Amino acid sequence: MTSASLKIAKWLLDVILPSKVKDEIVGDLEEEYSHYLAVGAGKANYWLWHQVLLTCSQYLFISTRLLMALAVCVTLCVLALFYTALAFLSYANSPLVYGKSYWLSGSANMLFFEAAFWHFAAEAIDGRFGIDFLIDSRAVLYTVLMFTLLQVIDKKYPLSVAQFIAVSIAFILLPHICLFFYFQMYNLVLHQTGPYIALMWLSTMYLLPICSYRLVSKLHEHARQYGGEGRSLACHRKH
Amino acid sequence: MANKKSYLGEFEHLVLLSILHLGDEAYGVTVRRYLKDSIDREVSIGAIYTTVERFEKKGFITSKKGGATAERGGKAKRYFTVTALGVSSLQDTRIRLEKMWCKLPVIAGLGD
């Protein structure tokens, strides 16, 4: 049992750890494990798995590098999605697209569940799409205000990484939620909805990369400050 | 900019001090045990290695492979040595911390 436990632990470390530290870490764990075995197999196995899981999480799950990569990937995916949606709207000119009820109910994001959107997405991106579709003064103003507010909050009440992510998501979703209720309260006609949808999507496109950049800086700072001891990112606050 | 260059995080500070204390015997197992025995700080071996990797990039430590033993499943040890730059960074951090502590008024549990 003890030998099998060690073999599984070594296999796990072999799969997860980068090659430059693999041998040293496995050797160190095996050395300490053999000392713990003298005390008892139960304690030794508990210690071994505690170390293996913490070390693996260090290099994989809680790794700031993984979170940074995740933040960048999510940002790029969301940017690509909204860019495609804007390109699609400038390309599509059919009642089949604009006749849908969600444009008037404040649920414009339902477009992403439309088969037609995914079918014509590539074609829409290839089509003529002016840069002016990506500029909206109200979205710029909202982004500047919200990012300034986020910075002020973070400075006054230093936010943990998890809190920073939560506040950023709230600020990004705020126009979507507010405009949903606005659409529900006022019966807008189709030609009136465009500027609101632009505000909703473009504010996300502006705010998300800036928040992601700040998040990555925060993660760098976190890694430098705490050496990534495998503790929850939510526990740490900036000093 | 100079501040940023020499500033050490709390855990970095502890690991660097442990390596200095251990001298020629500083490798993953001994650094981990030193932190546990001296300040009762239980850390994962992965935390030690991610920190020393960062130190090597900054030039604060160097490392060299040691001999492999059967006890370690035939894997070599990696010994760490603090460089002059690492010592200088520790000194900078110490001076700053001491300055901050000296300025503290004598209040309950703090100061002299």
From TrEMBL, chain A:
Annotated source species: Pseudoalteromonas aurantia 208
Top-level taxon of the source organism: Bacteria
Protein name per Swiss-Prot or TrEMBL: Uncharacterized protein
Keywords per UniProt: Membrane, Transmembrane, Transmembrane helix
Transmembrane parts of this sequence: 67-89, 101-121, 133-152, 164-183, 195-216
UniProtKB/TrEMBL annotation, chain B:
Region forming the signal peptide: none
Domain Transcription regulator PadR N-terminal as annotated: residue spans: 16-91
SUPFAM superfamilies: Winged helix' DNA-binding domain (SSF46785)
Name recorded for this polypeptide: Transcription regulator PadR N-terminal domain-containing protein
Organism whose genome encodes this protein: Pseudoalteromonas aurantia 208
Domain of life: Bacteria
Upper taxonomic lineage: Bacteria, Pseudomonadati, Pseudomonadota, Gammaproteobacteria, Alteromonadales
Pfam families: PadR (PF03551)
